[in-house]
Amino acid sequence: MDFYYANQQAILTAVGALSGIIAHNAVYIRGEWHVQAPQITIQLFALYVGCPVLAQTLKDTAIARFLQGVIFWSYGYLPGLIASILLYRVFFHPLTRTGFRGPWYKYGSFVRTGPAEITVFHPDVFMAVDGPRSECVKSEWYDILHPGQALVTARNKSVHAIRRREWNAGFTTKALAEHEAKILKYVDKLDQCIEQDAKLQKVTNMRDLLLWFGFDIMGDFVFSKSFGMLENQQWHHIIVRLQRALSLLGPFSSVPWLIQVGFNLAPRVSVLKDWFDTVAWCQSQMRDRLENGSSSQSQDLSYYLMEKDSEGHGFSENEKWHWAAGDSLLAIVAGSEPTAVALIAVFCELGKHPEHAEKIHEEVKNVDVTDLKTLVNLPHLNAVMKESLRLHPALLTGGNRKTTEFGLTIGDQFIPPNTTIVAPRYTIGRLESCFEKASEFVPERWTTRPEMVRNAAAYAPFGTGHHSCLGKTLALDTMKYVLARILKNYRFRAAPGDDSLSALETVKDQFTSNPGTLKLQFERRHATD
């Protein structure tokens, strides 16, 4: 009897192992399963925890005996599933058969950095994955707001095109003119903060100041309601939570299924609580904006997203609410931090290379720094911005794409179907094959030294094609206004005791960039300077 019982256990375990192998090869190997990861996790928990507990509770019953059989089956299922996954990835995966290796730089321009992921260090990658002829789609990471949606997370190309047209209404020439009037208001406040520190000979925490500036503008831009951080000289509580929440996106971006499990099943404490509190706050602000309108006479982004479309018709709240809530979070994050981080990078580089700050001062000292048409035509100002964005793109790595069933060729290299492609802008922008003295800050490469640009395709700080940043013009205009005003009125240097200017050496990649502290000492220029 014992032999029979043991033999039955072995058979059930073997059947479980076979079931795991079949589940992998017939089900999980096909399509995407990251969105279902929470449900699968619950099922496995029920199988490996619930069944033993229930069997123990109902012992000596028919149900308990059945559950005991399920338990023995489970002893083989998960090991069989995992073994099948590992064997497939190591020996039979299309990336293995195609010869991709990783994860080290020594493997060249195409490095395997995940089971179905290739990191590409090639200047043609941006146009290949986002150009007009590209068939690539956004990767699984973009389901981060599921079941919510936002323009940047829309993976369906037709849906993305519709939403992008709706966003375009907020970036017309007329709309930008209204936005730029708001920008100048906050440039005035930024100038006042720096002037106050300069008068008192205080060190200015430029990192905080520029992030406050960026978020204040975007609060006004999206909701016609500033966060008031420049005015109050302190962080708004929701922005503190947002910054903590974004720290999740760095370590977990490469495992989107784990993000889904965490968001759906993990206790909402610590940074997870920060994330959901931020989402809830954005939703409440959007709801308030829709119900009570704007206190401002100008039209904010919410107006364009919710109250009119390209035909001039109103949107129904039921149809557009979940999109607007997601888009408001997108706009706050994608509009505030990248511009602020880009400005931090410029000030950091100018602190290391003060001769370029003086050249810009010479360009702006006798011009109206509120006249955008003038600023657009200042060669060294624009070259410094462009060079800083090359070395320090605000999105260091973000923007993963996925090949379709046809695969993709980049350069001379074919990449198999259903492969995630990572194109790190930070690294590609520093390729010596694309830029002479690629790791050095040389703004002249964009003006008087064009031979130093060997392949301009490697420069894509705002993305490429139909997925390029809608707010590019607004961001560049904001940078011009800030740099022209500050460099006209002040000279600056690294704060005493902080000569390293290491804000960008300690930057964290968490979809957007999170730079370290940048402390500067400002001095007001005299009229004769």
From TrEMBL:
Cofactor: heme
Pfam families xrefs: p450
Main location: membrane
Single GO cellular component term: membrane
GO molecular function: heme binding; iron ion binding; monooxygenase activity; oxidoreductase activity, acting on paired donors, with incorporation or reduction of molecular oxygen
Transmembrane segments annotated in the record for this chain: 6-28, 70-91
Protein location: Membrane
Cross-referenced InterPro entries: Cyt_P450, Cyt_P450_CS, Cyt_P450_E_grp-IV, Cyt_P450_sf, Cytochrome_P450_monoxygenase
Keyword Membrane: yes
Keywords: Heme, Iron, Membrane, Metal-binding, Monooxygenase, Oxidoreductase, Transmembrane, Transmembrane helix
Keyword Transmembrane: yes
Residues binding heme: C469
Family: Belongs to the cytochrome P450 family.
Protein name: Cytochrome p450 domain-containing protein
Organism listed in the record: Trichoderma breve
Lineage of origin: Eukaryota, Fungi, Dikarya, Ascomycota, Pezizomycotina
